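Priority: medium. Attachment 1 of 2:
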C-alpha cells in the first residue's frame, strides 16, 4: 500500500500557475498547491493531499490513465489527464484547419484516447465544403457528427447528450468554431463557475485558468474539459517512424511497403504512395504527414 493512501483523495478540476482546485469524491472543493516549487498537476489528475488551514498541500499524484500535451514555441507541457474522449469542434465558417484537426487526432491516438469530430454550423452554406474536407476522416473510421448549436440548440443538445453521457470529454476547437457556445449550451452555469474559480484562485484578480473541468450532471458522471484557445499539440514524444501507425488511413497500407523502415515519402515499392496515387489516401493527409515528419526531424537536431 502507498505511504500516501491515508491522505485525502481528490480530483484536480482547475489550475492556474502553482495553485489548483481539488474536488473531493463528495464534491467539496479546496484550493491546493504542491509541496515544493514545481507543479506537475494537470486538470483531471487524482491526487493525495492534506489540509493546511483553509487550503491544502498536494503530496502525491496518482498514476494516470492517459495524458494530453500541448506545444508552445520552446517546450511541451501536459494539460489534461484521465479523460475518456476528445471532441474536436470544426466548422465551415470560418473554415477549419485540416492540419490542426489531423494533429489533434494524432495526439489523441498517441495517448490512447478515443476521438470524435463535431461539425458545427451545419445549417450554413459553407458546411458542404467542410463535409467534403471531412470525407477522408469519415472513411478512415472517425466518428463525425453535425449540429447547428446557435440555430437549433435543442436539436444540438439531443445530438450531444448521448455522446457525452458518462464520459469525461476534452473539447478542442479554435476561435470561431463554437466552443464557448457548446460549453454554455451543455453547462448553463459555466460562466459563473469559471468566475468563481478565478476569484478563488486569484483573490478576485481577472485571469484565465489553463483548463477547467465542468460537470454536466448532478451525479457527477459526465464532464466537459475546456482549454482556452486551440492547443498546438505536443508531438515531440512521437518518433517519425511511429507517425504512420497513429494515422489510420496510412496505417492501413504501411505494412505492404517493400522496406520495413519506409518513410512513405519517396521510396520505391511504397504501398502508402501507391494508395495516394489511387486516391485511397487523400493527398492532403499525405501532405500533412510529410509536414509533421519534417518537424519531428528538425526537433532531433
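Attachment 2 of 2:
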Amino acid at each position: 500500500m502507498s505511504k500516501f493512501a491515508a491522505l485525502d483523495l481528490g480530483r484536480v478540476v482547475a489550475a492556474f500557475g502553482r495553485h489548483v482546485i481539488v474536488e473531493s469524491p463528495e464534491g467539496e472543493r479546496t484550493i491546493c498547491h504542491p509541496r515544493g516549487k514545481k507543479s506537475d498537476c494537470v486538470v483531471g489528475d487524482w491526487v493525495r493531499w492534506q489540509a493546511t488551514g483553509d487550503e491544502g498541500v498536494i503530496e502525491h499524484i496518482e498514476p494516470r490513465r492517459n495524458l494530453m500535451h500541448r506545444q508552445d514555441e520552446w517546450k511541451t507541457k501536459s494539460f489534461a489527464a484521465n479523460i475518456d474522449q476528445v471532441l474536436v469542434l470544426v466548422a465551415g465558417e470560418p473554415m477549419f484547419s485540416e492540419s490542426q484537426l489531423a494533429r489533434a487526432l494524432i495526439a489523441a491516438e498517441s495517448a490512447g484516447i478515443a476521438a470524435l469530430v463535431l461539425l458545427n454550423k451545419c445549417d450554413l452554406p459553407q458546411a458542404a465544403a467542410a463535409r467534403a474536407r471531412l470525407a477522408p476522416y469519415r472513411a478512415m473510421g472517425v466518428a463525425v457528427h453535425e449540429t447547428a448549436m446557435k440555430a437549433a440548440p435543442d436539436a444540438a443538445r439531443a445530438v450531444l447528450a448521448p455522446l457525452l453521457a458518462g464520459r469525461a470529454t476534452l473539447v478542442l476547437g479554435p476561435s470561431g468554431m463554437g466552443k464557448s457556445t457548446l460549453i454554455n449550451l451543455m453547462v448553463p452555469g459555466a460562466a459563473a463557475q469559471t468566475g468563481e474559480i478565478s476569484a478563488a484562485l486569484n483573490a478576485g484578480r481577472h485571469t484565465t485558468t489553463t483548463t477547467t473541468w465542468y460537470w454536466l450532471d448532478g451525479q457527477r458522471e459526465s464532464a466537459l474539459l475546456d482549454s482556452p484557445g486551440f492547443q498546438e499539440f505536443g508531438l515531440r514524444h512521437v518518433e517519425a517512424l511511429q507517425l504512420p501507425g497513429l494515422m489510420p488511413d496510412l496505417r492501413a497500407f504501411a505494412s505492404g511497403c517493400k522496406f520495413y523502415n519506409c518513410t512513405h515519402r519517396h521510396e520505391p515499392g511504397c504501398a502508402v504512395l501507391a494508395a495516394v496515387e489511387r486516391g485511397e489516401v487523400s493527398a492532403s493527409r499525405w501532405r500533412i504527414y510529410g509536414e509533421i515528419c519534417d518537424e519531428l526531424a528538425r526537433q532531433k537536431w
